[in-house]
Design brief:
alpha+beta; globular
C-alpha cells in the first residue's frame, strides 16, 4: 500500500512541476485521412499491379512523445497479405525527433526522414493494393520513438531489417490501423 501511495504522490508532484513522465498510452499516432480502424481513402491506394489509386501517403500526426526521443522510424505493414511475413508498404527512418507529423505525399529525404525498401521493391510509400475480393486488409502504421538521432540504414533497408536495427533503442511505440479492400 505504501508503494502505491508513494507512486501516486510522485505523479501528482511531477504534474504540478510540469515534469510528469509520459504514461503508457500517451504516445498517439493519428491521421486526418482516416480514423483509427477506419477505411483508408482511395487516393492512398497503390498505383500499379491492378490498383488505380494515386499512391499518396497520408498525413500523419503524433503527440505524447516519450522523453529523450531523438528520432523516429515509421513502418506500414499489411499482416493480411497472402505472402509469408505480410507486405511492407512503407519503411521510413531518420525522422527528426522534433517532428510531430509528416505531411501527405511527403517524399523521403524531404526533412521528414529517408525511405527504405517496401515489398513493392521501391524506396517510397506504396499504398494498399489487396487482391480483389479479399476481405478488407489491415494496414498497421507503427511509429517508434528512438533514443538515437540516426539509424544505420539505407534505401535498401527492408521493414524486418529496420526492426532489427532499432531493437534496444525504442523508447515508445504508437500505432494506427486503417483498413482497405477492393471489390
Amino acid at each position: 500500500m505504501k508503494t502505491g501511495f508513494a507512486l501516486r504522490a510522485f505523479v501528482v508532484l511531477a504534474l504540478l512541476a510540469g515534469t510528469a513522465p509520459a504514461l503508457a498510452g500517451d504516445f498517439i499516432l493519428r491521421s486526418a485521412a482516416f480514423p483509427a480502424g477506419g477505411t483508408m481513402p482511395k487516393r492512398l491506394e497503390y498505383r500499379g499491379g491492378g490498383c488505380s489509386g494515386e499512391n499518396v501517403s497520408p498525413r500523419l500526426d503524433w503527440s505524447g512523445v516519450p522523453a529523450g526521443t531523438r528520432s523516429f522510424v515509421l513502418t506500414v505493414h499489411d499482416p493480411d497479405a497472402p505472402v509469408p511475413g505480410g507486405w511492407w508498404h512503407w519503411v521510413r527512418f531518420d525522422i527528426p525527433g522534433e517532428r510531430r507529423g509528416i505531411p501527405a505525399g511527403s517524399p523521403g529525404g524531404s526533412g521528414y526522414g529517408r525511405d527504405g525498401t517496401t515489398s513493392f521493391e521501391e524506396a517510397r510509400y506504396g499504398g494498399p493494393c489487396p487482391p480483389p475480393g479479399d476481405k478488407p486488409h489491415h494496414y498497421d502504421f507503427v511509429l517508434k520513438a528512438l533514443d538515437v538521432p540516426v539509424v544505420r540504414a539505407s534505401a535498401a533497408t527492408t521493414g524486418p531489417e529496420l526492426d532489427r536495427l532499432v531493437a534496444g533503442h525504442v523508447l515508445g511505440e504508437a500505432r494506427l490501423t486503417g483498413r482497405f479492400g477492393r471489390p
